[in-house]
Design brief:
The protein has strands spanning 23-24, 42-50, 53-67, 77-83, 86-93, 99-104, 108-113, 132-134, 137-139, 155-163, 166-167, 173-175, 177-184, 187-195, 211-215, 223-231. It has 235 residues and is mainly beta. The chain has one domain (23-231): Jelly Rolls (Sandwich). Strands 1, 2, 3, 5, 10, 13, 14 and 16 form an eight-stranded antiparallel β-sheet that branches. Strands 4-15-6-7 form a four-stranded antiparallel β-sheet, with no helix packed on it. A hairpin with a 5-residue loop joins strand 11 (166-167) and strand 12 (173-175). The chain is globular and about 55 Å long.
Length: 235
């Protein structure tokens, strides 16, 4: 199913853009579109909370879902494809207290976490834009505007419109990366948020015009499906 994003009128970023055809980042079958080694990431047909421990998944062999590990810990997964400006759709399922993240360009994280029912949320909660580390200290970070989380074990979604950083001909950065719009379960949680550099635990500590999508796999059990991207050109 194709999704279409309506962009708000923004004073800092013009909204004219052209979008490419939507690309499936995971074909439901294997990790052919992902960098190797991919650890224990594998395709399954179903995940559900383990009745013996809501912090774990039970899985069914098959196709359609990307699961990081039965044990809950493996390497981060990076796409072979590198993106610039994009519109990204991600569906994820997280067990109780588990943790992952979606890193645009392998550098800028939208947090995945079991945050259901929390009254006060911050950047470490689901949908948060994670903090950066400068001189050994955490700085910035942005909490979601609201807590849109579903209970652990239920499928959730992000729809992200992202503008990559800009560079001049000499390779010097002229504009920071920006999350133009982030929806969590169809609710607006971020709008026009600038990110001044790679966030904590990024795969790359530098900044480039393009980079791969990264799914964090070493912080607990996590399942993803329907990973779809349309590259855009945000003016």
């Amino acid at each position: 199913m194709k999704r279409f994003f309506s962009l708000p009128l923004l004073s800092l970023v013009a909204i004219s853009y052209s979008a490419s055809a939507e690309t499936a980042l995971f074909d439901g079958k294997d990790l052919a579109g992902w960098q190797q080694p991919a650890g224990t990431w594998a395709a399954v047909s179903k995940v559900s909370l383990d009745p013996a421990s809501s912090k774990s998944f039970l899985s069914t062999p098959g196709e359609g879902i990307l699961l990081n590990s039965a044990a809950g810990h493996t390497v981060d997964a990076l796409t072979k494809m590198e993106h610039r400006d994009c519109q990204l759709h991600v569906e994820f399922c997280v067990p109780k207290d588990s943790n992952s993240g979606v890193y645009l360009m392998g550098r800028y994280e939208v947090q995945v976490f079991d945050s259901f029912g929390k009254k006060d949320v911050n950047f470490t909660d689901c949908g948060g834009l994670y903090e950066r580390v400068v001189d050994g200290k955490g700085v910035e970070g942005r909490a979601p505007n609201l807590n849109a989380s579903k209970p652990a074990g239920e499928w959730q979604s992000f729809d992200i419109t992202f503008r990559a950083p800009r560079f001049d001909a000499a390779g010097s950065k002229t504009e920071n990366a920006r999350f133009i719009k982030v929806l969590h379960n169809d609710q607006l949680i971020h709008e026009n948020v600038e990110v001044k550099g790679p966030t904590r635990s990024a795969h790359f500590n530098d900044e480039k015009p393009a980079g791969p999508l990264l799914l964090q796999g070493d912080h607990g059990p996590i399942a993803y499906r329907n990973l779809r991207i349309s590259e855009t050109e945000l003016k």
